[in-house]
Amino acid sequence: MGVVLNLEDGKREPSIRKLIDLTAAGLGEVNKLILSKAGSDVEMIPEIANHLISSGGKRLRPMVTLASAEMFGYSGDGHVKLATSVEFMHTATLLHDDVVDESDMRRGRKTARTIWGNQASVLVGDFLLGQAFRMMVEVGSLDALDILSTAASIIAEGEVMQLAAAKNLETTEDEYFSVIKAKTAALFSAAAEVGPVIAGASRNDRAALRSYGMNLGLAFQLIDDALDYGGDTKKLGKNVGDDFREGKVTLPVILCYRRGSSEERAFWKQAIEDNIADDAALEKAMALMARHGAITDTIGRARHFGEIARDALAPLPATTYKSALIDVIDFCISRVV
Amino acid sequence: MGVVLNLEDGKREPSIRKLIDLTAAGLGEVNKLILSKAGSDVEMIPEIANHLISSGGKRLRPMVTLASAEMFGYSGDGHVKLATSVEFMHTATLLHDDVVDESDMRRGRKTARTIWGNQASVLVGDFLLGQAFRMMVEVGSLDALDILSTAASIIAEGEVMQLAAAKNLETTEDEYFSVIKAKTAALFSAAAEVGPVIAGASRNDRAALRSYGMNLGLAFQLIDDALDYGGDTKKLGKNVGDDFREGKVTLPVILCYRRGSSEERAFWKQAIEDNIADDAALEKAMALMARHGAITDTIGRARHFGEIARDALAPLPATTYKSALIDVIDFCISRVV
């Protein structure tokens, strides 16, 4: 099952090509720094780090940091260090998430915890987080440190919030947004804001990029949650139905449960709370979502935040960087095909 | 079974009374800050944080930070924030350690993971680490940030090292020291060094406190490892034999294994590698340690590092702070009674 989107400029396939080209030099440096800072005499550390780092993430967050610094004329190497820090924070979160969610697959590959165990995943995550902070300190911007360390706390707080709300079908849409704002959007927001910060851009420019990142992050997570009930496995790198089988109460489920009949709610309780989430149940869940427009409306919410992200950048002069960052919004939303 | 130490100044019971009195005002502020920074609308966070924080740790590390700043005339509130950061880093490590070690008891109480689960322990640890970094950033000293973020990486690296060497009886004494230097001594060292750093003390003063902390930390961990084979449960807050039952290769085991006959080595292999570590095995292990002087010599190593810690402070003028910090060395070593 797929959901076809009517993109505003339906003529071209939205792409992050422009962003990739613009940040190519910086990203090359980021990749070098990743390898060197994930290095350690303790063999297990580079092994696990490389497993995750080479497993085909798009490096979206570090590219956003690089672009958001360069667009304000930054010419040092601090943005490379901050971009690498952002990627390490993200990687550390993935390592800990997989332990918390007991996930076996990530981006189409075995998770680190299934290969090296939960223990190593926890500790290597801690190591990468420590290395991230060391790199930030090297850059020497207290403002950037403030933004990224605050994000680190908020992300963890969001993860605990999600854990506390686990399998609770009475979770409201507002509560869901609090969780994804903290666990996903806060890092996108920080990744975008530190660029103008180290470039010495204005208060308004900082606010613009912060808002762009926050809303992009919300859109990104909403689409991720929609994809779980109707994406193409290869594109997504996770299997359709992973969230369902793990009993995650994401927006598609929240909408479907709220809009459903009492019989349907009983089905959701069985599936999510009692974990009766086999293939037949998944098929039924997807049929109910289609009936109630749960996926379409989840994507609609994502488009809403995408619009806000776009408008956040509106006051900035028209540059290739600006249009590359706007393409990212369309790219994230168009992942649902 | 107990080991009686002949303290150099055998007349008095070594105590941290002087340190407690000197840092009382600062420690009151630390305790307030702990409560406020471990606060969150996400209920599980303060619950878990309070469980750990109220469970009777001595607050040795934050007291060292407070004293090491005040002894150089520091009069702001930055040392309170750094001391709280140090305690949070320590608490985060305990939370993750208990998950990694699958421990059920810590300081005589159930561990957080047995009450709230591994997942919450991992995430609340991450939250406390994030909060620690935020507080450090507030203080605004890049040198202090460098010292503490480097310690965070090294601690995690040490934990991975320990995991990789787990149950390996061929671990050398040198490898053991690399592990405890990273996982325990690095934080003591950082806790002591950031004091002179924010007080604007000299390079030599920084080096003195760093060395004091490092060697104090080594002595502390050695005694901790000795206590596991002969301390008083109530004093220790963990049960004698915990390390043995978990198959940890600590110095008492390393010495005993290396000095033992081939029959004895077969016993150790069964106990540590095959996990045949019941009460009878523990009794035998303790008898072998007595035979080979493994505990006595572990304590001897601790005294060696205690001497180095004392000499590190020797060039400093004789003040109450200095003598309070020296008392800490004796206190740590005299825990074996």
Automatic annotation (TrEMBL), chains A, B:
Q: Keywords assigned by UniProt?
A: Magnesium, Metal-binding, Transferase
Q: Name one GO biological process term.
A: isoprenoid biosynthetic process
Top-level enzyme category: transferase
Reaction catalyzed: 5 isopentenyl diphosphate + (2E,6E)-farnesyl diphosphate = all-trans-octaprenyl diphosphate + 5 diphosphate
Q: What is its EC number?
A: 2.5.1.90
Q: Name one GO molecular function term.
A: all-trans-octaprenyl-diphosphate synthase activity
- Pfam families linked to this entry: polyprenyl_synt
Q: Which cofactor does it need?
A: Mg(2+)
Domain of life, per UniProt, equals Bacteria
Keyword hit for Magnesium:
yes
NAD as UniProt keyword: no
Q: Which InterPro entries match?
A: Isoprenoid_synthase_dom_sf, Polyprenyl_synt, Polyprenyl_synt_CS
The record describes the protein's role as: Supplies octaprenyl diphosphate, the precursor for the side chain of the isoprenoid quinones ubiquinone and menaquinone.
Q: Which family does it belong to?
A: Belongs to the FPP/GGPP synthase family.
Q: What is this protein called?
A: Octaprenyl diphosphate synthase
Natural source organism: Pseudaminobacter soli (ex Zhang et al. 2022)
